[in-house]
């Protein structure tokens, strides 16, 4: 009896639920049809009105007073900026800056700046105070008392090789033409340093393959650069060598902006398939002659090749042009006088022009 009553109640409940859902669907169909008939803009307007009525504060969360304050602040800032740049003289700006620096606010700003610089120092300064070991390097075969030879710092990226990446082969590296001859020839006269702007863990193997004959004394990487003005600069101060004996070869003057008098700018090597490049080949005679002379101050010699903007570039072609001028002058001197007349008719073998650096 009890089970029959429970089954009857369940049947009635299912029937009631079925009737309720049918009525609900039947009543909702006209509403759905009506909503679909409304244009999109009208539906959007109705939705926004419903949201604003539910939260009237969100409709306008800025009072007229706050708007006026913001406009006043922005306007005053713009007027002050324009006056500072276009109206005030440099002397007035300097005086204002000095007064601010001497005030309590200036001392607080200076203290905060010093703290920030100290925290950022491990990320901006070279990893150690002495990037190169003391000279002479007895453990590298340099005898005690051997005079200091010039230091030639060579940038790796786009100077000695070009690197590129694609999805098919990954990273590929192409040596610049004549790089092996360049390193082998100048290793007899210079303490060569290969300086990469990439992290050591990424380029250590590349440097070993680039310098397969171990012509370079040292390898330096990004950890030894000085991050300055947004650039990883090759700072020569911690090189532990006299600045007058250091030469930097790079394709970008910003990379040695702290010591522009020591830098030689060369065209960047950006096409690994270009095997006609002769930049390094043309530099060999100049650096070889400079290394043989072992001048006391290389910056004085490099300054003779600086352009009007102060950048030292095209050293190889300029050096060859000077040699050609000397050869022509020598030929003209030999042609003067009776002796030159006689010598001009005698067979002779041309000799290479001799040129020395005056320091």
From TrEMBL:
Residue ranges constituting the FCP1 homology domain according to the UniProt record: 145-290
Membrane association type: Single-pass membrane protein
Gene Ontology terms: cellular component: TIM23 mitochondrial import inner membrane translocase complex
Keyword DNA damage set for record: no
SUPFAM superfamilies in UniProt: HAD-like
Family annotation (PROSITE patterns): FCP1
Main location: mitochondrion
A Pfam family assignment: NIF
Compartments, record wording: Mitochondrion inner membrane
Region (Disordered): 336-359
GO biological process terms on file: protein transport
UniProt KW keywords: Membrane, Mitochondrion, Mitochondrion inner membrane, Protein transport, Transit peptide, Translocation, Transmembrane, Transmembrane helix, Transport
Function: Essential component of the TIM23 complex, a complex that mediates the translocation of transit peptide-containing proteins across the mitochondrial inner membrane.
PANTHER family: DULLARD PROTEIN PHOSPHATASE
Family: Belongs to the TIM50 family.
Subunit text: Component of the TIM23 complex.
Name of the protein this chain belongs to: Mitochondrial import inner membrane translocase subunit TIM50
Higher taxonomy: Eukaryota, Sar, Stramenopiles, Oomycota, Saprolegniomycetes
């Amino acid at each position: 009896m009890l089970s029959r009553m429970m089954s009857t109640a369940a049947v009635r409940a299912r029937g009631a639920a079925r009737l309720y859902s049918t009525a609900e669907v039947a009543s909702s169909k006209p509403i759905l049809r009506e909503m679909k008939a409304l244009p999109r803009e009208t539906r959007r307007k109705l939705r926004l009105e419903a949201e604003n009525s539910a939260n009237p504060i969100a409709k306008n969360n800025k009072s007229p007073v706050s708007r006026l304050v913001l406009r006043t602040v922005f306007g005053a800032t713009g007027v002050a900026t324009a006056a500072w740049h276009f109206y005030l003289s440099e002397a007035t700006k300097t005086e204002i800056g000095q007064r601010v620096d001497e005030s309590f606010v200036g001392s607080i700003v200076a203290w905060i700046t010093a703290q920030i610089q100290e925290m950022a120092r491990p990320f901006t300064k070279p990893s150690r105070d002495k990037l190169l070991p003391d000279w002479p390097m007895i453990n590298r075969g340099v005898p005690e008392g051997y005079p200091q030879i010039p230091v030639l710092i060579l940038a790796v990226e786009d100077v000695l090789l070009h690197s590129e990446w694609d999805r098919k082969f990954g990273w590929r590296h192409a040596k610049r033409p004549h790089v092996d001859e360049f390193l082998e020839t100048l290793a007899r006269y210079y303490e060569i340093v290969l300086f990469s702007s990439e992290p050591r863990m990424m380029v250590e193997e590349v440097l070993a393959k680039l310098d397969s004959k171990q012509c370079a004394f040292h390898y330096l990487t990004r950890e030894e650069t000085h991050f300055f003005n947004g650039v990883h600069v090759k700072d020569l101060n911690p090189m532990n060598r006299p600045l007058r004996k250091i030469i930097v070869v790079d394709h970008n003057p910003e990379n040695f902006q702290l010591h522009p008098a020591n830098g030689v700018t060369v065209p960047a090597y950006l096409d690994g398939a270009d095997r006609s490049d002769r930049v390094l080949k043309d530099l060999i005679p100049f650096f070889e002659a400079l290394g043989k002379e072992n001048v006391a101050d290389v910056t004085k010699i490099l300054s003779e090749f600086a352009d009007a903007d102060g950048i030292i570039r095209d050293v190889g072609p300029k050096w060859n042009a000077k040699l050609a001028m000397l050869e022509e002058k020598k030929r003209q001197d030999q042609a003067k006088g009776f002796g030159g007349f006689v010598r001009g008719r005698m067979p002779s073998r041309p000799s290479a022009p001799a040129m020395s650096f005056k320091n």
